[in-house]
Amino acid sequence: MLTCIIRYHIDPTKKAQFAQYARNWGKAIPRNVADLIGYFAPHEGSATLAYGIYNIRSLADYERYRVRLVADPLGRENYAFAQSEKFLLREDRTFLKRVDLPE
Q1: Angle, CA of 40, 73 and 37, to the nearest 5°
Q2: 103 domain-assigned
């Protein structure tokens, strides 16, 4: 199992748009075979850092998941929403593997 952590740099004047984007992914991600942990927006401290976190079985499953999201009507709509509203300034993905559990 891999955990994907997406670090977003967002426009601090467009937190409401990011929240809508996150709610949309909250519907689309689970139905496209990833285990959504959640989306997290700035509250205290940095006003520009936000995160999306989900689990997926493998990088191969991730590639299939991305294809499914592009085909999903809400996924397409959400990508277009982000581009038109321009609240995402930067997006970085990191894939982590949990190592503290017994094998």
Answers
A1: 25
A2: no
Residue 28 lies in a domain: yes
Does residue 102 lie within any of the structural domains?
Answer: no
Distance, in Å, from the CA atom of 8 to the CA atom of 89, rounded to the nearest integer, reads 7
DSSP 8-state symbol, 33? T
The model's confidence at residue 65, banded by pLDDT at 50, 70 and 90, is very high
Report phi then psi at 43, rounded to 5.
-130, -50
CATH of the domain at 25: 3.30.70.100
Rounded to whole angstroms, the Cα distance separating 90 from 12 reads: 13
pTM of the model: 0.90
